[in-house]
## 1
Amino acid sequence: MSTADTIAERETEIVEEFAMFDEWLDKYEHIIELGKSLAPLALELHADEWKVKGCQSQVWLHPVRQSDALVFQADSDAAITKGLVALMVRVLSGQPAASIAKAPLGFLDRIGLHEHLSPTRSNGLASMVKQMKLYAGAIAAQEASHG
């Protein structure tokens, strides 16, 4: 269970977690395990409306506004991809929309994901991050306009 409260703290926690593994095969297994920890996504949310464009595997991402935070629900039909989206949900879910929109997410490079993912998975991960930031940016703009 995470005790990290901010995006930066969660990123640091994940970097430390991945540092415990010497081999990328072990890191992939960890990513797959993370995917298994995702809460089930309601069947009605497995709709095109919530599908992330640009992912080779199917990925559904549903943002839910909860008071001053944005919570993400997600699922994928592929094990590693589901783990990747679980990683992003773990870092960004429950954070203020404005913080999500501007988060640099340096942990992805620090754990070496961009170097070790296939180009299609790397593009899919970029699409997930982009979609999460788009949702967050739209909600942050809405919140700012309502004062």
Note: The chain has seven helices and two strands.
## 2
Amino acid sequence: MNSYINVIAIVEGKTEQVFVEQILAPWLAERMIFMTATQVSKPGQKGGDVRFSRVSRDIGLHLKQRTDTYVTTLVDYYGVTEWPGMDSLPAQRAPAQIAEHLNTAVMNEVNNLFAEQQSARRFIPFIALHEFEALLFSDSSILAEELGIPVANVEAVVAECGEPEAINNGRETAPSKRLNRWTQEGKFGKTTQGIAIAKRIGITRMREQCPLFNAWIARFEALMVESA
């Protein structure tokens, strides 16, 4: 019986690492869930070019190093090409269907590779739809205020797509592309402005507006109940 759990999050890049370290991990720690973030490794390079062959190697390393930890992922769906389940995605699909399809495919692949490390119990896949930046659309007022744009602009995007996690995968309409257009410089600062906005919005609001993100966090909360 444990009164806490440890989670290692393998994240796509610097922004996701800062988000976990500065915003998500402190929130989880108050609930006795201790998460640490590590970027996908590659000799001489960090972040970018996220391929499952790289991620799976890191998943295996962390599953083998400590048997008392859980391992999860935080990788953007946008731009991913080499990933389990990508070739078999149905043509018409909702965000929840995409996430379920890809996360199930990753789970199956990881279990094929690391069953001896109890991956079925210890690995929790998560792919962010469609980008980390989608979470910033969880509060239209805060996002608009921080960008200095009319709140109606943000509300129109959320209304058009239905919810933040449904803001799509288009080259010009992905969350990051929309944010770029709303900045005077034409380039939104993910690790600076993005993290500042995420801090103002907070995890609770993101969970209310983003069902897939909420379900990911709920998995850790359920593990706490199971371990008690």
Note: The longest strand covers residues 69-76.
## 3
Amino acid sequence: MRNKVKLGILVVLAAILVGIFLFTQLGNFPGYVLPKRSIKILAIVLTGASIAFSTVVFQTITNNKILTPSIIGLDSLYMLIQTFLIIIFGATSTVVMNKNINFLLCVGCMVLFASFLYKFLFKREGQNIYFLLLVGLVMGTLFQSFSSFMQVIIDPNDFMIIQDRMFASFNNINTDLLTLSIILVILVFIYFMRFAKYLDVLSLGREEAINLGVDYDYVVKRLLIIVAVLISISTALIGPITFLGLLVANVSYQFLKTYRHSYLIAGSVFISIIALVGGLLIVERVFTFSTTLSVIINFVGGVYFIYLLLKESKA
């Protein structure tokens, strides 16, 4: 089956699930329910697309299919920045209460960290997957530990504000940031188009890409900034979802079986939308909220992550 046909199937399946979510079980007040669901589905689509997009790009520049921005601790860093801002400026300050200013400040900090990460980790030669994975896990644990430490010493009322932003919640989406997030995603996509042509070559590895004429340092640094911005958007809207990117990116590799990133990125985005909307339908309509989608995703993703590690160790 050709990849264009496979992508078409994914698009149709995603559209059907979105349609079922929007237009079934509207009850007696469709005029109230439908706008609420439309905003929710827009945020979910934006989050799923950001996570899938950033994961495929991140795996290409790190040249492995196990590492993701979440596993290496980028979403933990976002929560650390939130906690740090509340401690420094207070929960009632404009920096914290104005969600747009708070969001832009966090995105700026994430971009600075991406530059730091590139300089001290990716620019060094001779790093293998296990070193990157080890450093990522250490950084993620370090960020979470710092966040926990600071949350213990702050005022309980301030802690409640942090707690609202800590847990992935598909029923309490931060819709105030939706407009700004859409604008940022569009700007990021326009900026990304300058570097999209290099991804297929970057997947060959650092030395091969340099030999083929790619300005490796320049391109990878800017792609890392794109990844940092997309992770900020997804974390701000719904919260950290550690293993979604790992799942959808690897399913995309297996389903499309191609090296061309034009197909891989599009495929992973639609698989992510199918996973989130389909999972949300099951949680809401089948399990009637007896569990949460983030728990299911992290459980399935965690098992799949262990499978990939065992598979890699036997290779």
Note: The chain has a mean pLDDT of 81.
## 4
Amino acid sequence: MKLVVVSAGLSVPSSTRLLADRLAAAVERLAPTEVQVVEVRDLAVAIANHLTSGFPGRTLAAAQDAVAGADALIVVTPVFSASYSGLFKSFFDVLDKDALAGKPVLIAATGGSARHSLVLDHALRPLFSYLRAVVVPTGVYAASEDWGAEGLDGRIERAAGELVALLPEDRPEARVVVSGASASGTSVTSAKARDCFEVVPFAEQLAALSPTGAAGV
């Protein structure tokens, strides 16, 4: 599996990068994985140039190709003003609009306070749903007090498992549990459900309820 990790941390060392690395390591423990990290801070100038000129530089184009060719993504941003950082959003603004269509994405964020944990559901999840990615159910938010505390490891492991389960080639049996989409766009869970039930026409059901066995009006 080709896994691309997009980290938008700005400092060195970065808690955002640390969370990204721990998520990638959790995925590697579950499935053979080739990990490539895209540090958005290194692409800041190239992103700005692309926004104003319409053309990506060599390094930004390479990062975009890596994202487009990945089997799955982990994306992690620091929280700025109760949302994702502007640089994080700009990276996806200059990405091809179809690059993430149908691609499993694990969303994560870091912040100084647990009060911003809803950023996953009010900012990141809508963004990647708009880009037609398949966002795993569990997002991972790490506030300053979460590092070294109970709970963070469990959320990382659960989210990593959900990401791996969305991969059709590696875990076909898990796709039934997670209700992933098949290559034809049909829900696997829905298809199995249809196979398990016999469809009875409504008129026959009415006839069965009638004392005479005939359907009424």
Note: The beta strands are 2-7, 34-39, 72-80, 83-84, 104-111, 134-135, 140-143.
